[in-house]
Automatic annotation (TrEMBL), chains A, B:
Pfam families in the record: tRNA-synt_His
Gene Ontology process terms (BP): histidyl-tRNA aminoacylation
UniProt binding sites for L-histidine: 77-79, 107, 121, 125
Keyword Glycosyltransferase included in the entry's annotation: yes
GO (cellular component) term, any one: cytoplasm
Alphabetical list of Gene3D superfamilies matching this protein: Bira Bifunctional Protein, Domain 2 (3.30.930.10)
The keyword Glycosyltransferase appears for this protein: yes
Name of this protein: ATP phosphoribosyltransferase regulatory subunit
Keywords from the UniProt entry: Glycosyltransferase, Transferase
InterPro entries referenced in this protein's UniProt entry, alphabetically: aa-tRNA-synth_II/BPL/LPL, HisRS-like_core, HisRS/HisZ
Amino acid sequence: MNIPGLLPEGLRDSLPPQAQALASLVRTLTDVCGAHGYERVAPPLIEYESSLASGSSRERLRFTDPVSQQTLALRSDITGQVGRIAVTRLAQQARPLRLMYAGQVLRVRGDQLSPERERTQAGAELIGSDGPAAAAELLQLAIAALATAGVTGLSVDLTMPTLVADLAAAGWPLGRASLAQVQALLDGKDVGALKSLGADAFVPLIAAAGPAPAAIIALRQLDLPDAILARLDAIAALAAGLDGVAVTLDPTERHGFEYQTWLGFSLFGAGLAAELGRGGAYLVPRPDGTQEPAIGFSLYVDGLVDLGLGVELQRRILLPLGTPAAEAAALRGEGWITVAALDAETGAAALHCSHIWQSGQAVPA
Amino acid sequence: MNIPGLLPEGLRDSLPPQAQALASLVRTLTDVCGAHGYERVAPPLIEYESSLASGSSRERLRFTDPVSQQTLALRSDITGQVGRIAVTRLAQQARPLRLMYAGQVLRVRGDQLSPERERTQAGAELIGSDGPAAAAELLQLAIAALATAGVTGLSVDLTMPTLVADLAAAGWPLGRASLAQVQALLDGKDVGALKSLGADAFVPLIAAAGPAPAAIIALRQLDLPDAILARLDAIAALAAGLDGVAVTLDPTERHGFEYQTWLGFSLFGAGLAAELGRGGAYLVPRPDGTQEPAIGFSLYVDGLVDLGLGVELQRRILLPLGTPAAEAAALRGEGWITVAALDAETGAAALHCSHIWQSGQAVPA
């Protein structure tokens, strides 16, 4: 027996005005993506767990489907579903294929930054290219969407998720360490351990992090393969193209970028410690075993609500009993929210109305 | 092992342009409700199963919460959640309390009219009154929302879900039948069985169904208690207030109106056999055991998409490589959807663009 109104841990009712703010922000973010040619898809909330490619399987809510007797899961991320659509139902469409989405995601439990188990995710994915032009488009689109939603003090953290693996593959000596060990030691910025294991070559990467222009200069000092130098050029152009946005580069950061390839990014705004969104380049697995390059981003809309964004100014007017329907419609046409009285007693204040409609005039209540 | 891209029975990917049509229709429907003073709430997709008041428990997808070890369920209806919010978190707000919502609902399996297990529901609820004025407001609002969304040929089927029980309570003789038997026989329009069981009094109700004015005249011929006559007056006024909408009354129809009280209604439009929405008066259970009167409606947005509504006219223009950002922004400001070329090869047609931006002009592609 549950207490009426009590919700399970990590789940909540969104009330006015936050629920409207969330809807309004989703509208703004998807409108911006739509205006840039991204077309909306809406995958289902639940799928066979085995076909949900993105998000950690440990964080998914699972159950047995009474119909198919198979394990279904509530999605904890939408990116993988969009990729699945791109390489199956939309496999024949010309590339680049630009898709966008907004919807809810669920997870078994919240984390330190956010206790919520149900969140709203919006995003855009470009499938068929992960080159510099696509990266610039997506990063600028993410920033335009957040700026249009009202976010100020935008900053971007760039990372190169496959850099360490690529350098090792190009011959940088790992010493007595494994690749995974070197990556973990770089994550922990553990210079001593890297040196004692003979992976000294990777140590300078730790210092080459910070504001993008300086970090790029520091990286260029190192003996990098041409392919990596080309990526650095792309990242330098990317950073230079983001007017008024603070850009940092942490080349070895991989946390949360396990699926990304040459580029990852996190988006932050003034007033919120948690990231507002993230994205990067990745590969979509095709049914035939090959992979298709892609790049995209996800935005976490609840964080924008927490910032107080998306709240619409409301002009509410109380319509006394018997107000003609045409007058009410005309007021709504002028942008008023009309609240019809059901009796002669209830006042404007109780119904959150600033005005009353009297003798054909909007009179302050 | 599932075939990539295969979804469980009853679940589907919504693709362009249908996914955008659905989003656009939700926007239209909730905008209309919002303009009438209904404030948005967004309850969670999953709750303790024991607190989900509306919708049949047999049709809910259930699972054990790994966190609380309790049974959670995906909602199959949102009305009950809105009622829960009204009598708990918003219990102190003045009445009438006007709330609206839009979101997804899920069920174990589809039905004959619709195989879908995931659908989008939008609706409005007025809590604190279920009188004639509230009923008129909600029914007109539902019709205005559907008409604004583009539905034509609107019709409304009215019903009086508690009529038979109320007449029995007022002394109409059930003969040797139980109330449930009489209700079932009325549903089956089984005149013979009603007579043979001695429930003759209820037989004339069967004929008193059809276009509202005639049905109301037929009902007035019967020996009805004053309370029922007052409801008939309200229903007559309701029907008269719906200009250009065909209104029928089937006073004993109860199927799907198990939770409704004196009034239920179903909404239909041209081109679709399935109902577009339904609603009625009901009682919200308060935590203290009392009940609060309410009236509301739910709209099934997927049906509107099936009717081809909500599709937005798109003017897409291809921007060649190197188009200045300011020109692109200006085009979007004029209502164009801009699609940036990532290379010099991909043509306008492949990217579904009707125009190309050339020398400062939109040129047909």
